Amino acid sequence: MMNLTGSNYSNTTISSGSERVLPPGYSTVHLTLTVTIVTIIILIIVGGNLLVVVAIYTDKNLKSKQNWLIASLAVADCLLGLIIMPFSLTNEVMGYWYFGSVWCDLWKAIDVLLCTASILSICLISLDRYWCITKALTYPRQRTATRAALMIAAVWILSLIVCVPPLIGWKNPLPVNDYPLCLLSSELGYIISSCMGSFYIPGVIMVIVYYKIYKAATERARKQRGNNNKKAKKKDKTDKELYGLLKNTDTKEKQETVTNMPTKVNSMTLTDDESTWPMYQKQGVNREDSGQEPETGNGTIDEQDIDLDEANEKESTKSDTTGTTNLTPNQEEIKHAEVYDAVKDLERHKRKLAKARERRATIVLGIVMAAFIVCWAPFFTLYIITALCNCIPDIVFDVCFWAGYCNSALNPIIYTVFNRDFRHAFKRILCIGQAHR
Questions:
Q1: Rounded CA separation 66/29 (Å)
Q2: Transmembrane residues, as ranges (predicted)?
Q3: Do 421 and 62 form a contact (C-beta atoms < 8 A)?
Q4: Residue 324: pLDDT above 50?
Q5: Does the domain made of 28-231+348-432 have the CATH classification 3.40.570.10?
Q6: Where are the domains of the chain?
Q7: What is the pLDDT at residue 245?
Q8: Which of 10-14, 92-96, 226-230, 342-346 shows the highest mean pLDDT?
Q9: What percentage of the chain carries pLDDT values higher than 90?
Q10: b/e per residue, 227-254, with b = 16+ CB within 10 A?
């Protein structure tokens, strides 16, 4: 996405004796301020997105297929700050293109490629999130490494399709000027098609998908409230039945009951909605090949979570080892009650953790999408208008143009603020760097 301010200087002549060394309209203070601010933005874009890529590559808690999509987004944003923005800044402050026509064409194409890849990556992340919620039982199995790689490849192929046409002739010839210029294509057909492919179609998809995510989350919360009311009425009855079952069995049968209790508790006290994540765990749905923690539709479960079957097996082994002849009936009943309460607490803790992560992931996605729309919508709107009329003030277009680039700086900041795993990984990486220094 190339700034149009170069057109301001198309009729200006350069003479060897000219005293003007700054672009028209730029004071020394203005120029210094512009260079300083844009340089800081570039450093944030490159450094922040590079941290995201390194964190995903090195941190086992972040090596999930879902985060591959975030890595693709970070790569596009990082390259944008590294390859495109320094030349945009140079062109802005000099007022003309210094680097030749060949690099001008390639630079504009790479700019469109990276901006489109960044936008389509956000769209893909929203679709992935939607499938996680609406296909909670099947999608984690379908999200293989091959599928994730194909989705990322599709993003970059579509981005190439958008950026290539000007390279093969779909553009207007540049006017003859005393200053060499590197301008965006003013061909109306390409402007409309590129804006549709780079922004409007992905933007509409993201808005629709996020609305469906919100509706699905609202419906799940409504069902959950109803299930909680039903559970509250049945809780006392269920507890009494289970306790009576424990009390009326002999010592050997009690040991067997304790061993099998988690399965019975799950089936008798948990609703389908609440017990979703334990079902993933037992089916082996969410174990990543890389050692990633169990994954639900919203992310990963903490390492502290305990496999209930394993815990029960240990409890049974412990009972067999120590024997029961030394336990009085009252002691045995107390032991069974403690195990039962512990199982319920573990189930409750895991459900709360999974739901909290799901809410947090949905909120982060919403913030990323809002930042994307706020940053890019003004530019793509004005880009179409400038093809129809020369009625947009240069300063307005400049602000909207650079606001689009700023979106690439916001994404790593959003993940740092709202994602604990990324935050911990960033701290670890930065501390390692300080240790070497």
A1: 45
A2: 31-56, 68-89, 109-127, 148-168, 188-213, 361-385
A3: yes
A4: no
A5: no
A6: 28-231+348-432
A7: 55
A8: 92-96
A9: 28
A10: eeeeeeeeeeeeeeebeeebeeeeeeeb
